[in-house]
Design brief:
The structure is a single chain. By secondary structure, the protein is α/β, with parallel strands linked by helices. It has 2 domains: about 300 residues, 3-Layer(aba) Sandwich (Rossmann fold); about 200 residues, N-(1-d-carboxylethyl)-l-norvaline Dehydrogenase, domain 2, CATH 1.10.1040.10. Helices cover about 45% and strands about 10% of the residues. A 6-stranded parallel beta sheet has the order 6-3-2-7-8-9. The chain has a 3-stranded mixed beta sheet with strand order 5-4-12. A 3-stranded mixed beta sheet has the order 10-13-14, with helices on one face. It is globular and about 60 Å long. The two termini are about 40 Å apart. The chain binds D-mannonic acid. D-mannonic acid binds next to helix 12 and helix 16.
Length: about 500
Amino acid sequence: MSLLSLSGAQRLTAATAAHLPASVQRPGYDREKLKPGILHLGDGAFHRCHQAEWTDDALQVAFGDWGIVGVNLRAPDIANVLGVQSGLFCRELREDGAVTRRLVGSELGHISVLDEAYDPYRLSLQAALEAAADPAIRLITMTVTEKGYCHIPATGELDVDHPDIVHDIAEPHVPRSVPGFVLEALTLRLQREVDLPAIMSCDNVPDNGATLRRAVLGLAQRVDPAIADRIAQQVHFLNTMVDRIVPATQPGDIARFAEQTGIADFGLVVGEPFRMWVIEDTHRCAMPAWDRVGALVVDDVRPYEILKMRVLNGIQSNVCQLGLLSDLQFMSEVMGSQTFEAFARRTIIDEVVPGLPQVSGIEVPAYVEQSIRRLKNPDLKHGTLQISTDGSQKIRQRLLEPLRACLTAGRSANGLLLGVAGWMCYAAGLHWQNKPVDVRDPKASVTTEIGLRHGSDPTAFVAEMLKLADIFGTDLVDNEPVKARLAQFVGQLRAAPAIEVVAALI
Ligand code: CS2
């Protein structure tokens, strides 16, 4: 679709929202009366299609000062997208050819932190910190992706050699990292003697709240141990499990929306109807009435987190690189192939399910089938590249922990090992026909270098990759059967499209 299709459309604003078709659901509360109570870091598609929608539901059943201020420490420039739309955007849910649309009103303010080149006086950063220090903000939530935590994936500890952490130790008042931003916001509040907010992580990071807490405290101890003590005693960091498939919005989504509604919405997000949110809240922190509109509040989120990361995310990460190396662009194409579907199901049922904890209220076989159905949804264009991105931060919880469970129990783990081999080839930029691979990962310079050096010797290649202890820990590098199997799969992936290797395995 061309830009022309947007030319007749009006930009979404509080005024033009009235022209949206009547079929578009509207906020069920008086938005004029809404005041901010949450600051959200990482205002991307997932947040807008999950927490922001959920907050609209909560405001409808129990109105309160829980509007959201979105802050992006990195691109995209959210102020430029949503600031000019009165904070409004729509979300579409797509399944079985049906589309349901909803205008979301819970986001009130947007601040983009621009980098030094555009903002040498750091005014945008100061504005974001002031917003976070505002006593009206009682909850700081975040979806900043795995790498935003600046932790070592294999251990969950703060990576003190991370360039942004090195910077934030030296210059804590102009932070670059998420832990640095949280620390500075809390420091300002402690200095001003205003109430401290609870901090809620909503990323696919194991023990996300506890991991963030360790990162913030690890940084604080290096900056100001007294502040570290006060944060340790007074601030609650909440673990949560979040779930909804929300691919990056495509230009075509926006064009189609404009053609069908007459409204140009550059904040549009597109997802699936399924949604889940489990919040571990042992201190009963103040928050919107999310629990009255479907979120589960529990004392231990871990079983839910393990289930979701090993089944739904596990399938995604097991097949996304193999799909990409088979030249398949979208997850629905990958899972739409009988070969990949059978491979995914067999891997999960034979290798992963036996190692899962009991999760109250969830039947695992039904959950597995539901996950496979969700991943096959052809109405969602979820890129294999999008899921492969930052795999070095994802594979521990999604593939390596279940692999370790298999090794401990003496179960075969060929499906998981093939997924790991797929990740290795992707991360090293090794396509079987030597086509260029778009490697997007914080470890890309290291992994592609290993690919260049050892790409034609699978045994040496696997040995070098397994030495990356921040990803693989230290237990797999000396495991000869694991090494041999990985080398065999890498050799096969170097010689044929991944789908043929998968077909041969099953
Ligand atoms: C995906 C997730 O890109 C990715 O890492 O695996 O965003 C996934 O779609 C969500 O976790 C689903 O809840």
